[in-house]
Specification:
Layout lengths: L8 H5 L10 H15 L3 H18 L5 H9 L2 E6 L2 E6 H26 L6 H26 L16 H11 L5 H25 L6 H19 L5 H18 L5 H9 L8 H11 L7 H13 L3 H25 L8 H7 L1 H27 L11 H10 L5 H10 L4 H30 L5 H4 L14
Antiparallel strand pairs: 1-2
Length: about 475
């Protein structure tokens, strides 16, 4: 019986052997799925699909579906070790546990931008930083002006957030009609917005604080910083300490997801080894044309440490955050019953109106005004190839405040399901309106202009791993 020929080099270069094969499942399912996940807006599509699924689950006229949604997401889940026990609902585990991964990825992205990206250069970062501040302050003021009462005033932080995944996804759909510099402007603005939202959650949306548990969390995070300074490279050590810090924050009353942000900011953004260390070892190890298991383990370690940990973790965790964590979060939190006049009541409530006005009007107004002042004072310069109508259009797109807005809504009215639902409806409707208005303004601004690539050939494309939020 003839021996089976080894796979050709061409087959291996195409990617994983199975997806590169002509098997029907690989050809018609595997490769299309793989290519879809490489698209920048794929995470936004999954997030939108999860939102629609949650709304259908609650609103389709099938007996028991709405009740089943509540029962499912409020299923108690307990972790118990000896006499220690923690029990929360499934929705709570998603919001406080699974979302920690998302905030960890956000922390990684902020760290990368501060060390290697636009936030490193004050001159380049000045305009999006100023714009982000305006885009947070004005929507909050608009909300307070409309819904600043004693029962509803706590929701002022809801319209401050920008959903980077949806916003960048919308610009991706417009293609070259939007200058690359304008995309980079939105990307940097959204990262600064992330920082602002994190600070708002930490300072203003915190329950009664247990300073003992908070001290434990701070001590564990400080221990991670010390281990990093000592060049301890064992990732499992940091995972164990990170889980401990998360639990301590959970018990302290400070929102546990902030542990993810803190750990992300502590992650090294520079390579621990020079690339030539791995190269020299590989050359020496392959002189005899053989590579044993010990040499392979050592080489993998050296190659891995030649790439900054921030980049490695972003590459590994971004798909999990974009394609699993955020869709599950949307499925667990976007299910709002819209029948029986609920939609109309929510849109006419002070909470719904405050959020809607903050996101649709406050965001573009705050961003445009802040940019205008910064440019007139000479603090910053306009993005290359970008006009004022495009700045306003980008500001309108920044009014898509989905994931973090929903997150803050859940923290704003913990004792009032009605106000929480009003806030969720306001977020959903306002985000859709902001997307439509933003697209319209950007299309109008792009009429009669050459392709964006011709306007700004040197401007880099934004490359934030598709992380809807």
């Amino acid at each position: 019986m003839p021996a089976t020929p080894p796979p050709s080099d061409d087959l291996w270069r195409q990617g994983p052997v199975w997806t590169a094969s002509d098997k029907p499942l690989a050809k018609y399912v595997g490769r299309p799925v793989r290519e879809f996940l490489r698209i920048e807006s794929a995470g936004s599509v999954l997030l939108l699909a999860a939102t629609i699924a949650a709304l259908l689950w609650v609103n389709l006229p099938f007996h028991g579906w709405a009740e089943g949604y509540d029962r499912f997401w409020h299923t108690p889940i307990a972790l118990e070790i000896g006499s220690w026990r923690i029990e929360e609902s499934l929705q709570h585990w998603v919001n406080d546990g699974l979302m920690t991964i998302f905030f960890f990825v956000v922390g990684l992205e902020i760290k990368h931008e501060m060390v290697h990206g636009d936030l490193r250069d004050p001159r380049t970062a000045a305009l999006p930083i100023v714009a982000a501040v305006g885009g947070m302050v004005v929507p909050a003021l608009v909300y307070v002006a409309i819904a600043g009462g004693p029962e509803t005033g706590a929701g002022w932080g809801i319209p401050m957030a920008t959903d980077i995944a949806f916003a960048v996804g919308v610009l991706g759909l417009l293609g070259r009609r939007v200058p690359s510099a304008a995309r980079l402007f939105l990307l940097t603005l959204a990262i600064v917005d992330d920082i602002g939202a994190i600070l708002v959650i930490a300072v203003f949306y915190t329950a009664d604080v247990s300073f003992v548990w908070l001290a434990v969390a701070v001590a564990l995070i400080a221990l991670m910083a010390v281990l990093r300074a000592l060049r301890v490279w064992a990732v499992p050590v940091y995972v164990v300490i990170g889980v401990g810090a998360w639990f301590a924050l959970l018990e302290s009353g400070v929102h546990a997801t902030l542990a993810g942000v803190a750990i992300g900011l502590l992650t090294p953004a520079g390579a621990l080894l020079r690339p030539e260390v791995a190269t020299d070892y590989a050359v020496d190890g392959l002189r005899d044309n053989e590579l044993d298991a010990d040499e392979l383990r050592r080489l993998r370690f050296l190659i891995g440490e030649s790439v900054p940990m921030v980049e490695r973790l972003q590459t590994r965790l971004h798909p999990l955050s974009a394609y699993v964590v955020l869709p599950v979060f949307a499925l667990a939190n976007a299910g709002v019953a819209l029948g029986g006049g609920v939609l109309g009541d929510a849109l006419t409530s002070t909470v719904g109106l405050g959020i809607g006005a903050g996101l649709v009007l406050g965001k573009p107004l705050g961003i445009a005004l802040a940019c205008f002042v910064a440019v007139r004072l000479g603090i910053a310069r306009m993005p290359e190839g970008t006009g004022w109508l495009q700045v306003i259009g980008v500001g309108a797109v920044a009014g898509i405040g989905f994931t973090v807005s929903l997150f803050i809504a859940g923290l704003s009215f913990p004792g009032s399901p009605v106000l929480t639902d009003d806030a969720k409806v306001g977020i959903l409707v306002a985000s859709m309106v902001a997307a439509v208005v933003g697209v319209g303004l950007l299309l109008l601004a792009g009429r009669g202009r050459p392709a964006a690539a011709e306007v700004s050939p040197a401007a880099p494309e934004p490359s934030r791993a598709p992380a809807p939020r």
